[in-house]
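On clarity, I found the account of how folds are encoded harder to follow than it need be. An entry of this sort, consisting of the sequence and the corresponding backbone structure tokens, reads as follows:
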Amino acid sequence: MTILKALLWIPTVLLFVSCSTKESVPRYTIAERITSQQGCHVLLYLKSSPSPFPSYNWHTPSVSIITAYSFYCHGGGKTLLSSQGTLYDCEGKRHSLTKEIFRHIHPRLIQIARLLQQHYPKLVITEGWCCPHHFRFLEAMGMSLPRRHLNGTAALLTLASPISLEELPTILKHLYPRLAPVSLKEFTLSGSMLKNEEFSLTLTNKGSHIEISIEIFYDTTKEEPVLPPESFPT
């Protein structure tokens, strides 16, 4: 009997000895998905706390950036009362995004406008490509534009500050590389118009602002003339 009691005490002694000799016991946690009583997964959201917006040392342009989008149809959905009834303008840039034909802008117009903007930061694109609807609406308002607006090869720019026609050739020569034909770098001035073999630029003083009309006549990339549309495109 004494021997049996001694044998029963041995595991107890070993248990206390093991607990007393170790400072910590390794434990393992098994992650399991939490489910509700209905068997649906339970989503646990971390507690949110407000944090300040990040600050970046990015350069903010002081003037708007001119892109092809700047020359999309500028219709504003306006109405005009006339002897023929009520005329409606188009929706402008909203419909310019739906058809590729409405987005054709001659790249030279963008380059010329960007170059002028470097010297005249307050330059504004007033009219670029015009859909037939918007073109007729402008005519009804008494605004006469070249038909080249109908195929994206003309633009009307507005400038609030004064501009001298004589100083423009020096600026526009930067459109051409050093080895470009001399005929492209030579501009002729006639009244309020400046012209070379590729395009013309006409200034009109409106009192409160200056209008700059640009028309493309020759495509230097394709080496072919640029003609206005013979009829209204559809």
